[in-house]
Amino acid sequence: MKSRGELIVIVTAYDATTAAIVERSGIPIILVGDSLGNVLLGYESTVPVSMDDMVRATSAVVRGTHNVLIIADMPFMAYQANVEQAMWNAGRLLKEGGAQAVKLEGGRNVAPTVRKLTEAGIPVMGHLGLTPQSIHHIGGYRVQGRTEEEASALREDALSLEAAGAFSVVLELVPSEIALSVTEKLSIPTIGIGAGINCDGQVQVIHDILGLQPEFNPRHTRRYADLGHQMQIALEQYASDVRLGTFPTDAESFSLNNELHPKDSSGNT
Q1: Which of the two ends of the chain, N or C, has the fewest CB atoms closer than 10 A to its terminal CB?
Q2: What's the CA gap between 161 and 12, in Å, rounded?
Q3: What CA–CA distance (Å, rounded) separates 105 from 118?
Q4: Domain match, 206 and 254 both
């Protein structure tokens, strides 16, 4: 896609139903992100997310899709201790979860691990800039690569990941000028999130772009729907109908004289 100049679209999903909708929309790549810790499990960061959480979510997404590239995040402390740990956990995401690739955070510090994984036949996506698993180390959710020293380190990290065999690199919360300089240096695609328009593609958390958490609207996203509010209205109406006794109606009920599966207007069950 990069060689054709085709911009790459990626979105997160964490369950079979949502993944099926993503596939029907024509988006070719799903990231099962450890962001599920924030949007599904109620954690304040991605740090508490476990391997079991990721395997379970990944397998659900795989079951809901047929022809989408599924990339699964390796959660915090699933690969940092040693290469053997990384190999085992990446293997779980492919064997148990059914993913086709894994994503991990870090640059030159994880390049040897990336090399070992790719040599073993496990495709790896890198992740640079704001790395949420290191949020306590980097001092919060802030733009990375602002100084020339940080920008130079970011470029070196990206080149080291490419040399180690990574097939792409996510750039998160990076100035667009720095993202452009990284993109121009790499032959592999860069995927931006809060890194401007100069990357080879974009990834977004599905809850952000669909407005499933109305109180959270980060600057680097665009809200394409307000589903959280719409869901609330629908649920309020359902609750009202139950309390007023207007749901269910006779048409929505079964009796001894009607069929278990009522016929539709065409007469089909």
Answers
A1: C
A2: 22
A3: 15
A4: no
Total structural domains in the chain? Answer: 2
Residue-wise pLDDT for 11-53, tens only, equals: 999 999 999 999 999 999 999 999 999 999 999 999 999 999 9
Same domain, 89 and 214: yes
Determine the Cα–Cα distance for residues 190 and 145; give it in Å rounded to an integer: 15
Q: Give me the domain span that covers residue 92.
A: 8-225
Residue 120 and residue 85 in one domain: yes
Q: At 89, list the tokens.
A: 């956990």
Q: What is the CATH number of the domain that holds 120?
A: 3.20.20.60
Is 172 an annotated catalytic residue?
Answer: yes
Q: Are residues 219 and 269 in the same domain?
A: no
C-alpha distances in Å from residue 246, one per residue of 230, 254, 260, 262: 21, 16, 21, 20
Burial 111-148 (b: 16+ CB within 10 A, else e): bebbbbbeeeebbbbbbbbbbbbebeeeeeeebbbeee
Q: Would you say how long the chain is, in residues?
A: 269
For the stretch 63-107, pLDDT in tens is 999 999 999 999 999 999 999 999 999 999 999 999 999 999 999
pTM, two decimals, is 0.91
Examine residue 170 and state whether it is found in any structural domain, yes or no.
Answer: yes
- In a shared domain, residues 214 and 96: yes
